[in-house]
Amino acid sequence: MDVRNLILHGRDTIPGLARVYPQLFLMPGTPDAEERYRDIVLCGQDAPTRSLAHFAGDPKDSCLPEETPAGAVPVITLHRRADFELFLQIMANRCTPVPIPRTQGAAILDGVINWTRIWDHKEEFVRLHGPGADWEGEFARFTADKANFKDALIVLSVGPYSAVSAEIMDLDEREWLSVSHTIRKVHECTHFICRRFFPDKKDAVWDELVADAAGIAAAFGRFDPAVEERFLGIKGGRYTGGRLENYLDGDGDRRERLDALARKIHNVLPLFESIGDAFRGRSPYELAIRLEEEIGCWKHQ
Fold this sequence. Notes:
Layout: E1 8-9, H1 13-20, H2 33-43, E2 62-68, E3 71-77, H3 81-91, E4 106-113, H4 115-129, H5 135-143, E5 150-156, H6 166-169, H7 173-197, H8 204-220, H9 225-232, E6 234-235, E7 238-239, H10 254-278, H11 284-292, H12 295-299
Parallel strand pairs: 3-5
Antiparallel strand pairs: 1-2, 2-3, 4-5, 6-7
Helix pairs in contact: 4-5, 7-8, 7-11, 8-11
């Protein structure tokens, strides 16, 4: 089953995904959960039970394909925070009950093994070549190309983007949650695109700026530097507290380095605004690709 074409709504969402990824039937922290996970994911075995009682589900959950310049990618939205965290524990953390940071509201899972695509190919191979055909040889050939059996998934929770309140954004709660979902979806889809089009251009802060710019443009119709600084916790070129500290690495005085990074971002955002204005009315993903091409200017700030 190709999840890029999968459309699921409401309480059918998690059961539908479990039909593709049976590791979702496992409960992190239970006896043998990690061993069973390996059997399912690495060997294509079925789950020992078919219960999903550990997930609550929600009528507003969904799994919908998002078309991007790099191809379609399924976007899974889980409205209950507990379901979002449980999904990541199973799918991203090998069925271990690791804490998921409250600040994490989305994830891109790249390289998820999809055995249903392998079994579908086997069925077609045997149909064409007969039951005595060399499936072992075909299996080796088919799985030599990761694109044949590995999926990328985008998983979203629901909540205010960057933990910024509706009051600060001057929006009512419902509108801000809707806007946050748009930003979060486009942000993660931008990471999906950039990983495929620019695999050698990796800079955590720049990638976040580009993904945020695409999300802001999608949600508000244009890129606004003031909104981006609000998301990161920057004011007047100084760090005031927010998401920016998630991307700080290296040694030295933390406050001094945060302020230096804030100034660097403050100085480069006018370029984002200028390019954003030139791309107004076009796809936010086109804007992201154009901005990614400007990474050289980041190194000279």
